[in-house]
Amino acid sequence: MSVLEVCNLKVSYSAGGPQILKGIGFEVGSDDFCAVIGPSGAGKSTLIRCINRLVEPTEGDIILFGQSVCPLKSGELRRLRRRIGMIFQEFNLVNRMSVMDNVLSGRLGYTGAFRSFFKAFPKEDIDRALNLLERVGLQDHVDKRADALSGGQRQRVGIARALMQRPEILLLDEPTSALDPKISRDVMGLIRELAAEFKIPVLCNIHDVQLALETCNRIIGMQDGYKKFDGPAKGMRKQDLDEIYAMEVL
Ligand SMILES: Nc1ncnc2c1ncn2[C@@H]1O[C@H](COP(=O)(O)OP(=O)(O)OP(=O)(O)O)[C@@H](O)[C@H]1O
């Protein structure tokens, strides 16, 4: 069953400006852990950001959980975004807040303004946050400030925060770009493990092709705003990669 359908998606950042996405179409199924790869500037990040309308599509449609995303007004869009977990390259943590509060902030979309202001989270949320922090290996860092952690640990907080909202899809935008190769593998392995356990489909913009092939079951290859490849990671040949990266100037 498909969770996400992207139909003939086109994006220009300004009227009359260059077209960044030139008619992209694909579906993501409930079991997919799908990487989006391609050279710098291919439009990978733009594509991921269109799905929750951080970037506004110019043409085409995005159907998420059976609902068209493009016409949603702000309240409906907010409700839809609660169902989407995002993990970013820059972690997007609040540095001066504790690890625990950063994770709990994943529930803010669900908590009333009064409760949020006084940080009065239900016990159930606190238990869940502690449990997730243990799952990502940060049980000994719960009360530390976020800026006291290493990059890999910060991204683990980002993972716990995204899972805190019980997302029905995870969108990852270069989640390992700021990390060294060993930590990147650990972080991607952890995301894969947790996504499988919680049965959450994943769409992931990722630079590191080798890591994408190791971690993801499906690859979408983009080049200059077009989809060039869509298939199982296992079936991908060197020739497919050469075609996707043919235009890259090193
Ligand atoms: N906010 C923006 N306004 C105008 N142009 C933008 C904006 N964001 C991205 N672009 C342009 O869109 C094109 C695609 O960028 P995008 O970040 O989606 O590509 P990418 O494949 O993710 O690249 P990279 O791997 O280098 O991050 C680039 O030419 C970029 O300059």
UniProtKB/TrEMBL annotation:
CDD domains hit by this protein: ABC_PhnC_transporter
Keyword presence, Nucleotide-binding: yes
Coiled-coil region: none
MF terms (GO), sorted A to Z: ABC-type phosphonate transporter activity; ATP binding; ATP hydrolysis activity
Cellular component terms (Gene Ontology): membrane
Domain ABC transporter: 4-249
SMART domains the UniProt entry points to: AAA
Keywords: ATP-binding, Cell membrane, Membrane, Nucleotide-binding, Translocase, Transport
Domain of life according to the entry: Bacteria
Pfam families with a match to the protein in the record: ABC_tran
Similarity field: Belongs to the ABC transporter superfamily.
NCBIfam families (UniProt xref): ABC_phnC
Protein name per its UniProtKB record: Phosphonate transport system ATP-binding protein
